Task: inverse folding
């Protein structure tokens, strides 16, 4: 019966078939990788299901035929039932297809990424104009699936004596004849699939007549195994080259770019295991989605346990790819058991330590790579600062922020560098949370910090607010939000009386009529009005109470759909500002226009901190009136 592909699949096929991508050879990597996965699963099933013959000789066979123009890839893996073919190959309702199409819109040459999206099978259509798949699960009927990639496929029942596993026949396109060439096939397999742990066996082309040797005898060609099958993570570090590990990474991550860092080690002692881990050069497109593929491959004594084992990594390191093999785990360990396994927990602890070490090293020795890394994964590291107490002190050294000294948002400073260049008179680490670099850079709150030569960090990533909450201090220096509480850069402790409250200064007394007037006028939204130590040029600003929500925090909370209790702000006015002096005179003289001035001042303070005006119409009218005068 003929069926049509889901729309997305048709679109995908169009893209694959018509792409001008030069590396069409990756189709073989994808199909071999599928075959190897299928064998992994068959082996695993054989362990738990006693009805299966356990001594099966697992292999991946390749058969090229020049005359028929076909290449056949056969495995004796798990196979698929009719329903599975329908689900995995036919309809691909998988979200992977959609995401892939989305990603293709933005990236030219993306077919190389095809495997990342769980649509690797379709890569076959880059080289074939017809694909036939025969597959059979043990104890089930064989299923035949055929398609020419033009929107339709057909599923029929297969032969009764079909072998278990899957066999894929590619009817190669006229211009793709290189893929029946023995040397070409060998080259591709060596390049991409050398460490596949099952033999990849190339059979002699049956359409080529056997040649005679010097003595006139017919040379019978034997099938040859193309791959070395060495599990490179189990070999010692000095035995494997960077090329080897890079190509292994490309294979498991379906990535064309080499990793930014490689961590290869074996642990001895309480828990024995070996690991080969990679930090990719670019973040996966779906890193922030909860259903993203993440986690490591896990093997126990040469037996594949599973892909995407999330238990081996904390969420903030979920972008790491790689393999872990332990001889301590029981072979029949199930995914459920992994969740609460003491061995897994111990392995994870070591892995996390090693990875953080590798990131530290990158930061210290390869700053350019670290910049790249931080651009891609900085947010994940911040998540670690927030959530991983055990490694908090190390992770703290890794985070970076732009500051008043940055020319643009990409120029970042670590807490250490910040602390190291603090002037002796500066006691605390200052930061400002804001929606953007521009807003932060231009806020009046910075005025007196600039005057004192104090650097202020900008927390402009929405997650920074939560990071700030956890950071608290660095090297004994408190982190201090500059838009919160009282800040007196010139004052010292002797200014305060015994109960910790500041004595009112002469200026406080002088401006009292104005601060009282403003406090009364804005009593619903403003808790206190006081003279500012933060401002040098601007007339007025809002700050938060020592323990209250800052304006930015309120916005972040709302963005996360949290209800924010109504908070009262603190209004600070600048006694040095001519405008404020004039307003004081106005109050003292009992001028009626003081109310309009006060409202304008209030609006300005709102605008400066990026809060929408509470009464835009009135604000506009006041400004227009003023302009007319
Ligand atoms: P992915 O392998 O990334 O999931 P593919 O498009 O390559 O995406 O394959 C889709 C699914 O089809 C696989 O997840 C697997 O379940 C099934 N499949 C593909 N090839 C084989 C095979 N040789 N044997 C058994 N199942 C297979």
Result:
């Amino acid at each position: 019966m003929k069926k049509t592909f889901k729309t997305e699949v048709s679109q995908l096929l169009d893209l694959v078939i018509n792409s001008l991508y030069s590396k069409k050879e990756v189709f073989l990597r994808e199909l071999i990788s599928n075959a190897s996965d299928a064998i992994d699963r068959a082996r695993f099933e054989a362990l738990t299901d006693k009805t299966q013959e356990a001594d099966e000789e697992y292999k991946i066979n390749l058969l090229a035929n020049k005359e028929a123009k076909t290449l056949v890839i056969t495995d004796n893996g798990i196979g698929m039932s009719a329903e599975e073919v329908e689900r995995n190959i036919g309809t691909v309702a998988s979200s992977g297809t959609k995401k892939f199409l989305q990603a293709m819109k933005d990236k030219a040459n993306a077919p190389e990424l095809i495997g990342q999206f769980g649509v690797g099978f379709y890569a076959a259509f880059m080289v074939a104009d017809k694909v036939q798949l025969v597959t059979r699960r043990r104890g089930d009927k064989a299923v035949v699936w055929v398609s020419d990639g033009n929107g339709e496929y057909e599923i029929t029942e297969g032969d009764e004596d079909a072998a278990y596993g899957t066999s894929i026949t590619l009817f190669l396109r006229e211009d793709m004849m290189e893929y029946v060439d023995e040397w070409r096939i060998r080259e591709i397999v060596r390049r991409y699939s050398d460490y596949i742990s099952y033999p990849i066996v190339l059979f002699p082309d049956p359409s080529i007549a056997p040649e005679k040797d010097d003595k006139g005898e017919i040379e019978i060609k034997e099938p040859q195994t193309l791959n070395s099958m060495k599990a490179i993570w189990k070999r010692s570090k000095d035995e494997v080259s960077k090329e080897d590990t890079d190509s292994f990474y490309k294979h498991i991550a379906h990535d064309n770019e080499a990793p930014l860092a490689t961590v290869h080690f074996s642990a001895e002692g309480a828990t024995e295991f070996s690991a080969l881990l990679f930090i990719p050069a670019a973040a996966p497109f779906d890193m922030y989605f909860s259903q993203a593929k993440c986690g490591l491959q896990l093997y126990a004594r040469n037996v594949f346990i599973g892909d995407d084992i999330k238990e081996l990594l904390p969420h903030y390191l979920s972008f790491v790819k790689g393999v872990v093999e332990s001889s301590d785990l029981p072979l029949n360990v199930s995914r459920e058991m992994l969740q609460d396994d003491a061995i897994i927990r111990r392995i994870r602890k070591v892995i996390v330590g090693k990875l953080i070490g590798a990131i530290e090293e990158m930061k210290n020795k390869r700053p350019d790579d670290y910049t790249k890394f931080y651009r891609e994964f900085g947010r994940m590291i911040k998540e670690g600062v927030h959530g991983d107490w055990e490694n908090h002190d190390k992770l703290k050294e890794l985070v970076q922020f732009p500051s008043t000294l940055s020319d643009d948002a990409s120029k970042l400073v670590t807490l250490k560098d910040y602390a190291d260049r603090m002037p002796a008179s500066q006691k605390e680490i200052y930061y400002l949370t804001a929606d953007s670099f521009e807003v932060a850079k231009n806020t009046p709150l910075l005025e007196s910090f600039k005057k004192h030569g104090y650097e202020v960090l900008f927390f402009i990533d929405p997650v920074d607010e939560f990071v700030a909450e956890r950071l608290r201090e660095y090297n004994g220096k408190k982190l201090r939000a500059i838009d919160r509480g009282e800040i007196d850069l010139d004052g010292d402790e002797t200014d305060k009386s015994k109960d910790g409250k500041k004595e009112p200064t002469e200026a406080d007394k002088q401006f009292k009529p104005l601060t009282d007037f403003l406090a009364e006028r804005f009593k619903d939204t403003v808790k206190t009005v006081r003279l500012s130590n933060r401002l040098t040029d601007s007339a007025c600003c809002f700050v938060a109470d020592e323990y209250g929500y800052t304006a930015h925090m309120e916005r972040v909370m709302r963005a996360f759909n949290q209800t924010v209790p109504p908070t009262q702000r603190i209004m600070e006015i600048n006694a040095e500002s001519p405008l404020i002096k004039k307003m004081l005179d106005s109050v003292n003289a009992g001028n009626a226009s003081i109310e309009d001035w006060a409202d304008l001042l209030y609006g300005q303070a709102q605008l400066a901190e990026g809060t929408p005006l509470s009464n835009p119409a009135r604000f506009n009218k006041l400004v227009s009136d003023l302009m007319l005068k």
Observations:
- Residues 233-367 form a domain with the Ribosomal Protein S5; domain 2 fold (CATH 3.30.230.80).
- The chain has four domains: 2-208+221-229, 233-367, 399-481, 500-545+566-628.
- The CA atoms of residues 212 and 218 lie 4 Å apart.
- Residues 493-498 have pLDDT under 50 and may be disordered.
